[in-house]
């Protein structure tokens, strides 16, 4: 990675992108499924069927939307099991070096996750990478929705804060593992690169009409080519 005059700002996703936690997510999903007597699923099934909002994902297996009571129970079980499993998860291969090199080159990056904000910040801090970001932001409000409005607020906060050279949405590249990351990027006029190591299969991601890569290193290298 070479330094230059790029103004590209990276917005990283957390779960399934920087954090290699997909297997923890599968275990937590199967625990939630057991609450409504659904059979466990495999990683391949998860990647083929995953969608946002999460109740729609559950609908694909239930054959109907979960009731409000079922959703609350399943969501609670999911987060409890995920929290237990997450402690054993590491960062995705190469992530730490990529974050360091991007920052060392004088470039800016932030983190936006649909993981609850109050849980996210100490977790990111625990992995020792919080100083790499100009802003770390998780979901506020109910779980299960889309990232689009959160992305809108995230970029607005970055613009207000200043300190990001030449900041504007067209200079932003979102790196994530879900179709929703591409939707959120398009919502604010940013670009997206999707990574196959997380929640979706490659064939599912390719339907988004944005570049799809098999490593975070490829994602960053591609983001560099988007430089204004």
UniProtKB/TrEMBL annotation:
Lineage of origin: Bacteria, Bacillati, Actinomycetota, Actinomycetes, Kitasatosporales
Pfam families tied to this protein: Hydrolase
TM region(s), chain numbering: none
Gene3D superfamilies: HAD superfamily/HAD-like (3.40.50.1000), Putative phosphatase, domain 2 (1.10.150.240)
Protein name as it appears in the record: HAD hydrolase-like protein
InterPro entries attached to this UniProt entry: HAD-like_hydrolase_sf, HAD-like_sf, HAD_sf, PGP-like_dom2
């Amino acid at each position: 990675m070479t330094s230059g005059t790029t103004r590209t700002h990276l917005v990283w996703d957390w779960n399934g992108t920087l954090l290699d936690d997909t297997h923890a997510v599968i275990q937590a999903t199967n625990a939630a499924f057991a609450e409504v007597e659904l059979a466990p699923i495999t990683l391949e099934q998860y990647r083929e069927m995953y969608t946002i909002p999460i109740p729609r994902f559950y609908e694909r297996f239930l054959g109907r939307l979960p009731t409000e009571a079922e959703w609350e129970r399943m969501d609670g079980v999911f987060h409890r099991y995920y929290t237990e499993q997450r402690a054993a998860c590491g960062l995705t291969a190469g992530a730490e070096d990529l974050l360091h090199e991007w920052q060392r080159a004088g470039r800016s990056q932030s983190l936006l996750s649909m993981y609850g904000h109050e849980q996210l910040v100490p977790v990111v801090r625990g992995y020792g990478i919080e100083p790499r970001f100009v802003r770390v932001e998780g979901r506020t409000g109910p779980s299960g929705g889309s990232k689009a409005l959160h992305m809108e607020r995230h970029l607005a906060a970055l613009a207000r804060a200043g300190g990001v050279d030449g900041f504007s949405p067209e200079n932003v590249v979102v790196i994530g593992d879900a179709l929703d990351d591409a939707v959120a990027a398009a919502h604010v006029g940013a670009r997206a690169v999707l990574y196959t190591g997380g929640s979706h299969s490659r064939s599912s991601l390719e339907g988004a009409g944005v570049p799809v890569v098999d490593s975070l290193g490829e994602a960053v290298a591609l983001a560099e080519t988007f430089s204004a």
